[in-house]
């Protein structure tokens, strides 16, 4: 759990269910994609009650939703939400295999007609060397936290290596007022090449 101050971390390879899309995250498509990810994640979580329990199953809490964000058109301002490009994802336990993923996907499709189940992928992601911090407050205030993170990186001798960033949502925006939302912000970093 990161602090409200920037830090440099090395993030290992982690398994995820993920869905990619674009447009305003306040729209219906984003909500349906999120719902599809949660229905799959809960299918895995509750599989200990099934006749076919995955090998190595251990009890855990479903992980929070995460999003990796970029812009479709970089000439437009970052405040234009219709210009967002995203991959939303939920981390999965280490015991999950590709075979089990296919099984849970078929199971979820039988229970739900959500079209975004067709778009779910099971992949491993390694963020590697990153700068991260806990942002408390509205999503619209995130640029201030990103500015602090970039300033911290400069002081520590790192540079941001991509405009893409990750957000990990520790609060439910439907239940908590914007000023109290907790979101982990993260972007990749590297040491500048001083040979140039």
UniProtKB/TrEMBL annotation:
N-terminal signal peptide: none
Ranges for domain GyrI-like small molecule binding: 6-190
Gene3D superfamilies to which the protein is assigned, alphabetical: Regulatory factor, effector binding domain (3.20.80.10)
InterPro entries assigned: GyrI-like, GyrI-like_CCH_Lin2189-like, Reg_factor_effector_dom_sf
UniProt protein name: GyrI-like small molecule binding domain-containing protein
């Amino acid at each position: 759990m990161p602090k409200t101050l920037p830090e440099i971390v090395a993030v290992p390879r982690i398994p995820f269910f993920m869905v990619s899309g674009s447009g305003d995250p306040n729209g219906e498509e984003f909500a349906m994609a999120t719902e599809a990810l949660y229905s799959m994640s809960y299918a895995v979580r509750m599989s200990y009650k099934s006749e076919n329990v995955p090998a190595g199953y251990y009890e855990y809490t479903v992980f929070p939703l995460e999003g990796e964000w970029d812009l479709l058109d970089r000439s437009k301002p970052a405040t234009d939400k219709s210009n967002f490009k995203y991959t939303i994802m939920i981390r999965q336990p280490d015991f999950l295999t590709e075979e089990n993923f296919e099984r849970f996907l078929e199971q979820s499709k039988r229970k739900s007609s959500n079209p975004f189940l067709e778009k779910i992928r099971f992949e491993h992601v390694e963020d590697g060397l990153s700068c991260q911090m806990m942002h408390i407050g509205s999503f619209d205030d995130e640029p201030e936290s990103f500015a602090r993170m970039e300033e911290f990186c400069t002081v520590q001798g790192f540079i941001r290596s991509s405009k893409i960033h990750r957000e990990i949502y520790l609060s439910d925006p439907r239940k908590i007022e914007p000023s109290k939302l907790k979101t982990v912000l993260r972007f990749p970093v590297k040491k500048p090449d001083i040979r140039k």
